[in-house]
Design brief:
The protein is of the alpha+beta class. It folds into three domains: 105 residues, Butyryl-Coa Dehydrogenase, subunit A, domain 1 (Orthogonal Bundle), CATH 1.10.540.10; 93 residues, Butyryl-CoA Dehydrogenase, subunit A, domain 2 (Beta Barrel), CATH 2.40.110; 155 residues, Butyryl-CoA Dehydrogenase, subunit A, domain 3. The chain contains twelve helices and eight strands.
Length: 392
């Protein structure tokens, strides 16, 4: 990668930091309209956010995990839905780089291309002449309104055992169902998409088992470190910065109100004089520190393993899930402590902290993020049992 490309990649953190006021400005509109504002999408593109996982030969930055965490944290300071949509685009964008190079040529021909997707196998694929015919629907497709391609998971039927496949399809071939009515991350536009009798050629299909086993069909990406790790640790490191960003957002929102806020029906004319405030702030700040510790330890694990190229052990794989869960759990506790200390007036819809609270709650319910699920998986392996999930 050229010196100018490295510098541009490093500048992304600074550029998105400058965009925080813009993301905050559009947060209410995005909640009401249940998708990102076009100005937010354009700003992310102009800042280089959608190039972070793109191969250098297409003008991308091939950023490491710690860079993703830093960028997602900054975006999350402005708005959780914007951060989540950007972060989850890095995952199917990275998955695109496992496909044959000719497929990548087609996808990355679009500047600042955006790929949405899922890991849920909620479609079927019937073998056809030179490909498969796909039917199905996929829920929680964040950013579908603004994407050019979708990565889908379907079960290939036919002779032999059914097998899950991963395929790339143009968004123009998918139908979007405007059904994203949610309590949190409302602006992410995480709608359902549908395919009906959609033909997908063989070159845009990969066996999901091969992907989970770190097998790539790309010749030109074989020597690039960021495309070596397993899918699930990559996904964990891509999304964890959203949680730390939301914790920062709550921290900043709380302290913006603190100087002028009293505690109603008490003799405290200033909330900052009350011992309970000191305890809440101390707890939240400690939890935020813990969240960043686990987030960056996760990023360091993924980056170290990518660089040394050594095989991932089962314990390392479940450790990635555990670190993700721990970071998000600590971030949630930080937000909850500050939201609880913000008083009844904080529930007004124009108060940012109520949105941050709902966003972090929604985030931690995600099946691959849920702290309790990830802790159980981690403890199970530590006790010498086999993992009870293939998603490691």
């Amino acid at each position: 990668m050229s010196t100018s490309s490295v510098r541009a990649r490093q500048d992304v953190v600074g550029r998105v930091s400058e965009l925080v006021p813009l993301f905050r400005k559009h947060a209410a509109w995005q909640e009401e309209n249940r998708r990102l504002h076009e100005e937010s999408v354009e700003a992310l593109a102009d800042a280089g956010v959608f190039k972070l996982r793109t191969p250098a030969r297409y003008g991308g930055y091939e950023a490491d995990s710690r860079m993703l965490i830093a960028v997602a944290t900054e975006i999350g300071r402005g708005d959780g839905s914007t951060a989540w949509t950007a972060a989850v685009s890095w995952i199917p964008g990275w998955m695109t780089c496992l496909f044959p190079d000719s497929v990548q040529d087609e996808v990355f021909a679009t500047p600042d291309v955006r790929v949405c997707g899922t890991l849920s196998p909620t479609g079927t694929a019937t073998p056809g002449n030179g490909g498969v015919v796909v039917n199905g629907s996929w829920a929680f497709i964040s950013g579908a309104w603004h994407s050019h391609w979708q990565e889908i998971i379907a079960v290939r039927t036919g002779p032999g055992e059914p097998t899950p496949i991963m395929a790339l399809v143009p968004m123009s071939d998918m139908r979007i169902v405007d059904d994203w009515h949610a309590a949190g991350l409302r602006g992410s536009g995480s709608v359902t998409t549908i395919a009906r009798d959609l033909f997908v050629p063989d070159d845009r299909i990969l066996p999901l088992t091969a992907v989970l086993m770190q097998q790539s069909a790309s010749r030109l990406n074989a020597d690039s470190a960021i495309y070596r790790p397993p899918l699930v640790p990559v996904a964990a490191a891509s999304s964890v910065g959203v949680a730390t960003g939301l914790a920062h957002a709550a921290h900043e929102a709380f302290f913006r109100r603190l100087p002028e806020r009293k505690i109603t029906y008490t003799d405290y004319d200033s909330q900052r004089e009350a011992p309970i405030t000191h305890l809440r702030v101390a707890e939240a700040t400690r939890r935020l520190d813990e969240a960043e510790f686990h987030a960056y330890r996760l990023g360091a694990l993924v980056d170290r393993k990518a660089t040394d190229g050594a095989p991932w052990t089962v314990r390392e794989r479940v450790t990635a899930r555990a670190e993700l869960g721990a970071a998000c759990e600590s971030a949630r506790h930080a937000v909850e402590a500050l939201a609880t200390a913000s008083g009844a007036s904080s529930i007004y819809s124009h108060m940012p902290i109520q949105r941050v609270r709902r966003d972090i709650q929604a985030l931690t319910l995600h099946a691959l993020i849920n702290p309790a699920t990830n802790a159980e998986l981690y403890g199970r392996v530590l006790c010498g049992l086999e993992p009870n999930s293939r998603y490691i």
